[in-house]
Every structure is written in C-alpha cells, then in structure tokens.
Amino acid sequence: MAQTDFSINALLERAFGIGRGLPFDSSKAETPQIRTEQPFEDVPASNDQEGAEFMQMRLSVNSSLPTGQSVFMPMRLGGLVLPNEPSIIVSSRKNIVETALAGSSRRGTVKELISVEDWSVTIRGVVINYDSVLVYPEDEVKALRDLYNLNEALDVESALTNLLGIYRLVIKEFLLPEMIGIQHAQAYQFICTSDEDFILEL
C-alpha cells in the first residue's frame, strides 16, 4: 500500500464546502465517569448501564479504515458497509395547524398536530483508492451506484439511526460532486427517507 497521506476531512470539505470532526481515535477516548450525586430530585442518578445500548449498537457493525484506524460510527446500508465513516444528518418535521385565537385577550395560537413526516437522512462520504493517487476508485463507485439502483427499501445498521428507530431507508437522490484536481477519490451523497411496514386492516 502506498504511503500517501489521505485526509478524509479535506476531501469532504473540498467536495461539499463543509468539513467534519477528526476521525475517532480510540486510544484517546476517556473512560466515562459515573455520577453518584443526584442534582435534581426528579432525575434518577446515573448508573453503570448508561449508554450501554448505544455502545452495543455502535459495535454491531465492525469497521476500520484501510489505515487501521478504528471507526466510531460505521454504517451498513443494503448489506454494504459504507467506506471511511460517512457523516450522517438526520431530520424530521411535524405538520402542525396553528389557529389564531379570535376575540380573546390571550396571545398566541392553538396548535393541532396533523402528522409527523418520515425521517430524512443525508449520508455524505468519500471513497478513496488507497493504493494509488493516480487511479480512480471505479469499483467503489460502482458499488454505490448498484446500491442506488436497488428500487426497494434498504436495511440500515448504524448506532444513530437505530437509536432513532430507523431500520430501513429508501435512497431518493444520489450525488457525485466534482473532484477537481483529485484522481484517487470520489465524494458522494445519498439523500434518503425512512420506510416502515404498514399493516392494512380490512
């Protein structure tokens, strides 16, 4: 493997105009401190099981960079472990009807919840040819294309999405931004929406 410096953060910043935090370094991870005092009467004290569910989900997908560096929050989509720990943005919104109060001295509106929309998940990552800075990562890009071409809901495994109850995603958009001056890497973006099974009762 060529001894070339690959900065994933620099590649993502160049492709999308935004950077991200440094990759996870397990050697510098601090041992979580267990708080024994109870700061508020209604809040239970912490215990040694706090965060155990998240940690268990995080370790369910084993992944590391080709450089040997461990990945903090890997993601498997449609059976494919997305390379180089992509960034994940999750959002949702509620549809609320607001009705003004007429003939009243009270300010404000009455809110009526109509529905809650699906989760929107944006995945941004980069595929890299670690063996040569002159060769485009064809196979990795084809694997992403094949993932997009699947016209079905894809199983997703990630600590963040599973924590929010998102287990299937449908890819709505696939973007490969230009990588001017870079031959060995290709950034990509998936815009997805969550999918759930519905039971039709007749």
Quick rundown:
This protein has 202 residues and is of the alpha+beta class. It has 4 helices and 9 strands. Helix content is 16%, strand content 27%.
Textual characterization of the structure:
By secondary structure, this protein is α+β, with helices and mostly antiparallel strands. The protein has a domain at 70-196: Elongation Factor Tu (Ef-tu), domain 3, CATH 2.40.30.200. Helices cover 16% and strands 27% of the residues. The protein has helices at residues 8-16, 52-58, 138-149, 159-163; strands at residues 76-77, 80-81, 87-91, 94-100, 109-116, 120-128, 154-157, 168-175, 185-194. A seven-stranded antiparallel beta sheet has the order 2-1-7-8-9-6-3. Strands 4-5 form a two-stranded antiparallel sheet. The chain is elongated and about 70 Å long. The model is unreliable at 1-5 and 32-46 (pLDDT under 50).
**Contiguous helical run count:** 4
Give the N-terminus to C-terminus distance in angstroms.
60 Å
The SSE order reads HHEEEEEEHEHEE
SS content category: alpha+beta
Q: Which overall shape is indicated by the principal axes computed on the Cα atoms?
A: elongated
Strand content: 25-35%
Question: Order of strands across the widest beta sheet?
Answer: 2-1-7-8-9-6-3
CATH architecture of the domain at 70-196: Beta Barrel
Number of strands: 9
Spatial extent as radius of gyration: 22 Å
The proportion of residues forming helix, as a percent range, comes to 10-25%
Low-confidence sequence ranges: 1-5, 32-46
Biggest β-sheet: count, sense, barrel?
7 strands, antiparallel
Any idea of the CATH topology of the domain at 70-196?
Answer: Elongation Factor Tu (Ef-tu), domain 3
